[in-house]
């Protein structure tokens, strides 16, 4: 029951897909540091070591879910937090602040 209520709240907070596609892109210069980029590369390598190389899902397209087994949270929590903080700042400044309770659920590479 609590899960259904949470899902309903999440749906109400979402922006219509068409409206979302019309929203402007907000660029944050230097939002991700060189250190963070190296951390993402290291996460990809560690994910491949633990879970195997990513399967090709489309021509020249491979996806790794870096959140698998808590990898991203345990190895790059500062990067994840900086991304969440940036998203919340942009949301508050430009889109009405609906993402105040946002958290990272899925990390793809």
Question: Overview of this structure, please?
Answer:
- The chain is mainly alpha-helical and 109 residues long.
- Helix content is 54%, strand content 5%.
- The chain has helices at residues 2-13, 17-22, 34-51, 71-75, 77-94; strands spanning 56-58, 61-62.
- Strands 1-2 form a two-stranded antiparallel ribbon.
Beta percentage is under 5%
- Sheet of most strands: 2 strands, antiparallel
Secondary structure tally, helices: 5
Mean pLDDT: 82
| Oligomeric grouping of the chains | single chain
Low-pLDDT parts are: none
Q: From N to C, what is the helix and strand string?
A: HHHEEHH
- Helix % is 40-55%
Strand line-up in the sheet with most strands: 1-2
C-alpha Rg (nearest Å): 16 Å
Query: Tell me, what's the shape?
Result: globular
* Structural class estimated from helices and strands: mainly alpha
Number of strands: 2
Distance between the termini: 33 Å
Topology:
Elements: H1 2-13, H2 17-22, H3 34-51, E1 56-58, E2 61-62, H4 71-75, H5 77-94
Antiparallel strand pairs: 1-2
Structure keywords:
single chain, 109 residues, two-stranded antiparallel sheet, 5 helices, 54% helix
Quick overview:
The protein has 109 residues and is mainly alpha-helical. It has helices spanning 2-13, 17-22, 34-51, 71-75, 77-94, and strands spanning 56-58, 61-62. The chain has a two-stranded antiparallel ribbon with strand order 1-2.
